[in-house]
Amino acid sequence: xxxxxxVTQALQKLLATATGKPCGTGALPQTDGSPxxxxxxxxxxxxxxxxxxxxxxxxxxxxxxxxVDCVARSHAQAEWLADRARTGVLGRDAHGAWLHDLxxxxxxxxxxxxxxxxxxxxxxxxxIVSYVIRFQFHWTPAG
Length: 143
Known about the structure:
Largest sheet: 6 strands, mixed
CATH architecture: 2-Layer Sandwich
Number of helices: 2
CATH class: Alpha Beta
Helix content: 10-25%
């Protein structure tokens, strides 16, 4: 079975690289030991699904779902960060290769998709704006 910890680490690295902004896992990211200032993203693991054989079978495909909360100071900044995250996860080059690798030892990600794009919150007076995106990743054992 795929180790979620490894997927989470790989996706966190992808998001931080693609956006150029800090990404926390389940919590506010830290920068030099202090809470990061917006814009930043928070990555959250969602339920895991498996196809076929029992949960412990290492030869079956799995699908992982993640939510990315893009946190910013303004509506425009939240949309900018969400665009960067979406392109980082789903973007491909002219040859169809992913713009950013999602490397997990022993597993190959054969499909990535957008599960939900909720957009930014609609409170113009808010000091913090969040934009929620959910992605799905389909995995198969490598080799």
